[in-house]
Amino acid sequence: MSSALPEAADVVIVGGGVMGTSIAFHLAEAGVERVLLLERDALGSGSTSKAAGGVRANFSDDLNIALGARSLEAFANFGKRPGQEIDLHRVGYLFLLENDDQLELFRESTIRQRAVGLPTRMIGVDETLSLAPILAPDGLAGACFSPTDGHCSPESVVLGYATAARRLGATLLTGCDVLGIDAIGNNISTVRTSLGTVRTSTVICAAGAWSAALAAPLGINLPVTPLRRQIVVTEAIPDLPPTMPMTIDFTSTLYFHHEGPGLLIGMSDPDELPGFHLDRTDAWLPRLTSAMERRAPSLLDVGLTGGWAGLYEVTPDHDALIGEAGGLSRFLYATGFSGHGFLQGPAVGEIIRDLYLGREPFVDISPMHADRFGADIRRTERNVV
């Protein structure tokens, strides 16, 4: 990549994860000239590189279902457009359920998903155990299975978008820290960086957990809070079915999927305090161990080979912020995905392209405008882990 900061750009994208690179690709593909993406570290080095890689359309909200389904189509065709193998495994998502309330929630969301052509279905305990035989049946009431979901490699997705964006004429700079954005009146004029200043009239914020600090000096409220989430990877586990789904225990949020010959395992920690904490800690392990003992006890006998900590970019209602700020021309944003950013990246890149070009996106994105919090409106997505 070129290390020279251009004097001017038509649009500056801040953030080089899946969201930023997807936006850069979609803009460049649409013929937008002088697209500039700025990333202070390496591409994908923030939350994207720490993601579990799950891709799904199994949500309870019609808008999130649409974003997930659109992105699944893009992931399935990624080898052709933009042109990169991403190790996609469409083994499905399996949500484990244990009470009537959970069963009813997922029955309702299954109806919503099937209404748009997705093959999601409710299944009984016997079929659940046949799909994921390492599970213990005690306490299971059934599951929700979406067979076209799965997981893939976040780093490969970023590489594919970045390579194609550059090939189409976009400039992507790494090691370039954005220090501030200046405006003349209500119009963005320049972006100040550690490599110098670039003139522009448009900024797109795809800075993930760092978005609030970027927007605040402009008087724009993007209520995004960083929250650490941790993942561990196990040693090889013999006789694991190669088609075992991405499996989530909805009660505890314990989840796992294939990672090489072993499993990648994660879980939320309700005691985690907000902040930019990227160090690994053992504080969550007793809760993880307890969840494994209850739901997949054989995992307690498997050693660990490593793990990592990353940041969720969390909003007050655990749903994304997508739109364009009012009162300042032009500041667009795609952030606050609360754990769903990687899987929605392809669709959101397309949407931001259309917002920039003044086109009508494939789905009405207005419910995800950041102004909803000022109006005391909350999104109601419930299939959250």
State the distance separating the first and last CA atoms: 37 Å
Q: Quote the average pLDDT.
A: 96
Helix content: 25-40%
Number of helices: 8
Order of helices and strands: EHEEHEHEHEEHEEEEEHEEEEHEEEH
Which value, in Å, is the CA radius of gyration? 21 Å
Number of strands: 19
Task: Record keyword descriptors for this entry.
385 residues, alpha/beta, eight-stranded mixed beta sheet, six-stranded mixed beta sheet, 8 helices, 19 strands, globular
SSE blueprint and pairings:
Elements: E1 11-14, H1 18-29, E2 35-39, E3 54-55, H2 62-76, E4 93-97, H3 100-115, E5 121-123, H4 125-131, E6 142-146, E7 150-151, H5 154-167, E8 171-174, E9 178-184, E10 187-193, E11 196-199, E12 203-205, H6 211-215, E13 225-234, E14 246-249, E15 255-259, E16 262-267, H7 285-295, E17 304-314, E18 321-324, E19 331-335, H8 341-357
Parallel strand pairs: 1-2, 1-12, 2-8, 4-14, 12-19
Antiparallel strand pairs: 3-7, 4-6, 5-6, 9-10, 10-11, 13-16, 13-17, 14-15, 15-16, 18-19
Helix pairs in contact: 1-5, 1-8, 2-8
